[in-house]
Amino acid sequence: MPVFDHPEFDHHQQIVFGSDEASGLRAIIAIHDTARGPALGGLRIFPYASDTEALTDVLRLSRGMTYKSALADLPLGGGKAVIIADPRRDKTPELLRAMGRLVDGLGGAYITAEDSGTGEADMRLIAEATEHVGGLPRHGAASGDPSPFTAWGVYCALKSAVRHGLGRDDLTGVRVAVQGVGNVGAHLARHLHAAGARLVLTDVDAAALAKLAEELGAEAVAPAAIADAEVDVFAPCALGAALSDAVVDRLKARVVCGAANNQLASPSIAERLMARGILYTPDYVANAGGVIEIAWQRRDDYRRDAVMAHIEGIGATLDEIFARADREGLSPATVADDLARERFRPAG
């Protein structure tokens, strides 16, 4: 399995392959960059079809975390971890403690946290083997769950995108398709509903979809139909690569803004969206709210009002990105990447 010649390899500082026979652990940790500080990134447990697929995911995700922390002005670098397993069937305390030992062996260069397939209870088990865990409650917080903060950041990002892409200062009557109503997607949908948006929802979990759609008076559609919804905004909030060539060709929305990581199936999709007149909101800018909260939880001067102000700054960052993209005739994705590299790589 090639690493240095892998198309997603981007001068990553360290890639660690870990296994534990007793627990069945098969994991990869990727540290992309630590120029700004230790690499923070969630732990994803997913039944990847191959080791190569897992490596591709962890390389892309870790790079995105570096960019995310840089544009959120956090003293953190970017990393990510994946375990090749089915979280519903294979996740055990022994597997999680083995993962904790793998993280601990990196001496603090990588800090793990929640992601798809993991939650706060899993982080507590990992913390039995290492102190290098983020997203656990501190400073009297009721929960370490970062998903409400991620959702609020995406909501702030979506308002900026709607201003730039639709010329609207409010969300009343704006139709939004939310793809995926898990922890973050459901929180986002509730914020949008409260702001007067009209919602079209989908999820692979039919029961959760039906329950939320009834709560919010939203339209529910099958996952395969969400890209065809007659909406103003498309919000990908499930797994990555939601925006393929075929999906982009079907979109009716004029704005894309969601919580999912790595929404673009390939970098060229950003140009395809731009050619269709669809404003794309760079995902790692929009979904930085959870990382901002985790970063603040590591500080001794934690204040909830300061955290929320920092998260709401996502909108201002996007205002800058969209304005620069307009001036320079570039896609917002290209501008965001350039700006992130300026901030995490020292000049020269």
Topology:
Elements: E1 14-20, E2 25-33, E3 39-40, E4 43-46, H1 51-71, E5 77-84, H2 93-104, E6 110-111, H3 120-126, H4 147-166, E7 175-179, H5 183-194, E8 198-202, H6 206-216, E9 219-220, E10 233-236, H7 245-250, E11 255-256, H8 269-275, E12 279-280, H9 283-286, H10 289-297, H11 304-328, H12 332-344
Parallel strand pairs: 3-5, 3-6, 4-5, 7-8, 7-10, 8-9, 10-11, 11-12
Antiparallel strand pairs: 1-2, 2-5
Helix pairs in contact: 1-12, 2-3, 4-5, 4-10, 4-11, 10-11, 11-12
What is the C-alpha radius of gyration, as a whole number of Å?
A: 19 Å
Order of helices and strands: EEEEHEHEHHEHEHEEHEHEHHHH
Shape: globular
Please state the structural category: alpha/beta
Largest sheet: 6 strands, mixed
Helix content: 40-55%
What are the low-pLDDT stretches, counting only 5+ consecutive residues below 50?
Answer: none
Strand elements, count = 12
N-end to C-end Cα span: 33 Å
The residue-averaged pLDDT reads 95
Number of helices: 12
* Strand residue content: 5-15%
Describe the structure.
The chain has 348 residues and is α/β, with parallel strands linked by helices. The protein has 12 helices and 12 strands. Strands 1, 2, 3, 4, 5 and 6 form a 6-stranded mixed beta sheet that branches. A 6-stranded parallel beta sheet has the order 9-8-7-10-11-12, with helices on both faces. Helix 1 packs across helix 12, helix 4 packs across helix 10 and helix 10 packs across helix 11. The protein is globular. The two termini are 33 Å apart.
